[in-house]
Amino acid sequence: MEINHLNALRLGFSTKENTKIKEAGVNKYIKHQLNGNLSISEPSFIQNSPRSIQEIQELRRKSENGGKDIESVAKQLNQLSFEWKAYILSRCHETNFPLREKINLFFQNHFVCTLQSVKVPYWIYKYYETIHTHSLGNYKNLVKEIVYSNAVIKYLDNHKNKRDSINENLGRELLELFTLGEGNYSESDIKNTALALAGLTFGEEKGKYRPFLKDNSTKTVLGKSGNFIIDDVIDIIFEQKSTAYLLAEKTLKWFFYDVPHSDKIKKYGDCLLKNNFELKPFFQTLFEEECKNEMGGNQIKNPLIFMFQIFHDLNLKPNYKLMAFILKNQSMDIYDQPNVKGWKGGQNWLTSQIYLERNQLIDFIVSGNAKYQKILNKRLEKFNAGEISFSPIFNISDKKNAKSILNELIQRMIFEKNEDIQNELNQLLKYDFDPNAENADKAILKVYQYLAKTPEFQII
Fold it and tell me: How many CB atoms lie within 10 A of CB 360?
């Protein structure tokens, strides 16, 4: 695979940005992406949605009193959730700053919080806004803001964490998944962190402490004692080096390697420490260094990249609700991870079932399948996804002959080829292939279809 196509996949969601990377140079491109002004505003469908648990409960009461089906409220919330998934996909696909959105999605998988559990779409929007605002700022500040998110408080049950009735969920995940990593704290640290979180519950825009629910005892966390609130505990956590190394490891896994080498984890963890947990210089150093590596094959594509690459390559008009449905079928349900640990990635992205789903998708796009199309239309009817159909077009810059066409396809699609692949390609597009023949474009699409189903295409 040509290096600019490879780096476009690493730094974004498809090969869409390869020309920009080639023209600017990868280092300049990265700086532009990290310094770009990517705005965010509250989507219209969120503006009219419930803004708290109390408003949802009130909707349910009105539904019951009016004799309506109580399930109608649940259906409304489900539709809003689907709108949100489509909205996030539209931002990822249409933005001029895909690296920024990829960082935002990385942190959403780091600080997991799901629509299914939170229920309040407005809280999910505010949670996304928090990540977007702080994802290139200081990591300690980001963690502090995330802990005060109404969505995170709801997802990890901290509204149930009260003096004399302690819930440890948020305290445990703060230490294990958000900062220190497993093995770098004790059970006592978890209990005392939970005590520091007692009384932190829902507020209008973000969480706040209720004095009568707060625990005012002395807490001891990581060897330090005091009547801490969670801000104090986070300050103590960030004195530990393991916080930097956990973030470095997870960043490398998200962007470059399914199994990052320990030397790289230390190198970039040290970079984060040196920059006092400032994220922009950390990301810039890591991206610039790792994009020098011209060797692919270090990471299995997640379903989002797989799908967006195909939609870009084949010039397909995006249907974001359909895309959300496809991702759910391939176990990457946007904003609805299977558990608090998020999407595991790696080999979990290429189970036999997911591989089958990927092949079925590319076959459907290129060759069509009336039965499958009818099923999709029926399942998405309630979400107003519109009619589902495709008109794939694959643009080739050099259509001189079979050799030039195959070479371009290989450079754009797979990181390496073997003898079996080459032999199959030579059969699909014979040496005397006429690019100007009536069915030439269909023949090229068949080659694309074949390559998209190879194991090599599944890997970055």
Answer: 15
CA dihedral 269, 275, 279, 280 (to 10 degrees): -120
Cα–Cα dist 182/242, whole Å: 10
Range 319-327 average pLDDT: 95
Q: How far apart are CA 390 and CA 316, in angstroms?
A: 7
Cβ atoms 456, 417 nearer than 8 A: yes
Q: Kindly tell me if the per-residue pLDDT of 134 is higher than 70.
A: yes
What is the structure's pLDDT at 443? Answer: 95
CA distance 435 to 447: 13
Count CB atoms within 10 A of the CB of residue 233: 27
Neighbour count for residue 238 (Cβ, 10 Å): 20
- What amino acid is encoded at 412 in this protein? R
Q: 388 with 326: CB under 8 angstroms? A: no
**Phi, psi values for residue 138, rounded to 5°:** -95, 130
DSSP category for residue 310:
H
Helix axes 3-11, 98-110, angle to 10 degrees: 50
What residues does 209 pair with on adjacent strands?
Answer: 200
Tokens encoding 193: 């962190």
What digits encode the pLDDT tens for the residues 93-106?
A: 999 999 999 999 99
More confident residue, 172 or 388: 172
∠ at Cα 273 (267, 276), nearest 5°? 145
What are the boundaries of each domain within the chain? 36-137, 303-383, 402-458
3-state secondary structure at position 208: strand
- Please report the pLDDT score of residue 355 as a whole number: 96
> Tens of pLDDT along 235-258?
999 999 999 999 999 999 999 999
- Token look-up 């498809």 returns 14
